[in-house]
Structures are given as C-alpha cells and as structure tokens.
Amino acid sequence: MTIYSFYIFDRHCNCIYNREFTHLDHANASGVGQVNKNNDSNASKLLFGILYSLKTISAKLIDSESEAETAVANALKSFTIGPYRAHYLESLTRLKFVLVSDDNIDNLQAILWELYSVYYIRNVVHNGLSPIEFKQSDDFKENETVGKISNSGFITETDQFLQSLRFFN
Amino acid sequence: MKVYSIYILNKAGGLIYQNDVNPGLTKLTANDYLVLAGTLHGVHAIASKLSINIDGMESHQESTANANSALLVSGRSQDANNNKSGLQSIETDLFNLYVFQTLTGIKFIIITSPNPGELKKSYDSANEVFKQLYIVYSDYVMKDPFYSLDMPIKSFLFDTKVKEFVT
C-alpha cells in the first residue's frame, strides 16, 4: 500500500498544491519528492478533467431527491485507473482534495477530511498572510503560473501526517 | 451487489446497448445516455494517457498488440479484460461503476449498488458479471447473422439472457 501524490485544486480549476512522493527501496528515504513542481503539468490538468467529468456523471446518474435522507448530490469518492486509485473529497467551498494511491487502499475519505479540516484550515485559512484566492490578478491568462500554497507550515505538517500513516509506504 | 444498469459502447464510444436491469438510477433522456457514454469513453481515453504520464507504462496500443500475439502463440485464452491502463472503476456514495474492455475495443459498463469497505470483493463480483455478459454477448449478438457491427443491439434474446443472469 502506497501513497503516491497529493493534489489540491481550487474553485477556479487551478492546482494550488501538488506534492509528489518518491518511494525508494531503502528505509529513511521517504519524504523525498517534489512540492509544487507539476501544478501546470499535463498530468494535473488531465487529472482535473477526469475528476470534473466523473463528478458530473455521478451527480447526474442518481437523483438527490430520490434518496430522501441525502439532501446533497451524490458525491464521487474514488476512481481506479490501471494500478492507481485516486481518492477525492470536495469541500463546500469547492476545494478539491485528491490523494493518489495504489489500488489496495479502499477508502481515504477520513484522511482527506483530516487534511482539509485540520491542516488546511489551520495553516491556510487561519493564516492571515495567505491569500483567499490563489488566482493572482484579474487579467489572468490561460497558461500563466497561478498562486500556490508554498506555506512551509502546511507542507511540513501534511508531509508528517501522511508519512505517519501505516499505509504510506 | 445489485446491478442497476448495463451499457455497451462500441469502439468509437457510441452507446449500442443500454438496459436498466434493476431500478435505482435516475431515468435520463436518450440523448443524455449518449452523452454519458461519450463522456465515459473520453474519460477512459484520458485516463490511459494519464497513467502513461505517471509511470511511463507501455502505451495501450502496444499492449493490445502484445495480447494479440500472445494469444496467437499460446493459442490459449487470456484474461478477457483488456482494460489495463484506462479507467476501471468509480466509487461514489450511491453507486459503483465498472468498465470492462474487450480486445476489439468494445466496452461493457455496469453500474452497481455501492458496497462500502469491500472494494476488492465487489470488483471480483463485477468481473463475474462481465464474464457472463461477454459470453451472452458473443452467443446472442456476435453470432446473430442479422446484426451489423457497431450498430445498436436490438435483440430480444440478448435482452432476456441479460435479465436472466443479473436477477
């Protein structure tokens, strides 16, 4: 069981945080990898495209009114592509949290929720120096590099949290 | 695990068969089903592109060629599911969706009730459904002399047989 990467997309479809973990064979090598290197790469755009389409499909296929006890639309939880499984959580403010793992991990909803409700809220939302919108200017162009979460507190704490999980490696 | 719906897509992403075998899903218009099929086909293609991007896996085209030559050399049947790098399953709160792809690019899609906590198990039972579906498809669609390839399946016998194994 392995966790490969962690993405956050904001409501403007921008990838505002991207963490890729490199897993080496020898011990003590975890924690290496890249932070915010591939926010504008094709991989993150493709991932977002897939998420968006699947989200629409899952909301469309089952009517929310037909299930009286669930007032909200049917939410996408995860999807499997080849050997990978992407776990997905969307907050009410339409922030999208994605964890990519191998296909042995069934459910990471609780982990995603903790990443959002503890680490994101504490280090980004409660942080007065952090922008509300990560889009930098109004004359925002298509392929311009947009804002990212480069807050070291957030990065170290989420890294520590994810690496402490028993299925991280 | 309860099967809600079965879709069959031709290799171009067109919906050629759609059957709501058990109630549970919202009824959509015929046009919406076509859009849905097209979207899934597109997402499947993007997904294979993405998984190549992630780990430089051999492309889908090559793996089809490999599967074909392995079949010719060994003369034995392989795993019928050719869906190795594309979208395989979706799990949501209220349903699960599984995709099966044959060597010739036909996609079988089933939508089932969710089975929380037992993903591997429901994946296996989905594969069992696909196996049955493939057999029935081969017997009652492909062997039908009046069926033309990639066209909508309007076979009463196929309908009956599909209903038989899902209920």
Explain what the structure shows.
The complex is a heterodimer of chains A (169) and B (167). Chain A has 169 residues and is of the alpha+beta class. Chain A contains 3 helices and 6 strands; from the N terminus they run βββαβββαα. In chain A, helix 2 runs antiparallel to helix 3 (152-163). In chain B, 33% of the residues are buried. Chain B has one domain (3-166): Beta-Lactamase (2-Layer Sandwich), CATH 3.30.450.70. The mean pLDDT of chain B is 86. Chain B has helices spanning 30-55, 60-74, 119-142, 156-166, and strands at residues 3-9, 15-19, 87-92, 96-101, 107-112. By secondary structure, chain B is of the alpha+beta class. The longest helix of chain B has 26 residues, at 30-55. Chain B starts with a strand and ends with a helix. The interface between A and B is large, with 33 and 38 residues. Chain B: This is Trafficking protein particle complex subunit. Chain B: One of its GO terms (cellular component) is TRAPPIII protein complex. Chain B: Its main location: endoplasmic reticulum. Chain B: Belongs to the TRAPP small subunits family. TRAPPC4 subfamily.
SSE blueprint and pairings:
The complex is a heterodimer of chains A (about 170) and B (about 170).
Chain A: E1 3-9, E2 15-21, E3 33-35, H1 42-61, E4 76-81, E5 84-90, E6 96-102, H2 109-125, H3 152-163
Antiparallel strand pairs in A: 1-2, 1-6, 2-3, 4-5, 5-6
Helix pairs in contact in A: 2-3
Chain B: E1 3-9, E2 15-19, H1 30-55, H2 60-74, E3 87-92, E4 96-101, E5 107-112, H3 119-142, H4 156-166
Antiparallel strand pairs in B: 1-2, 1-5, 3-4, 4-5
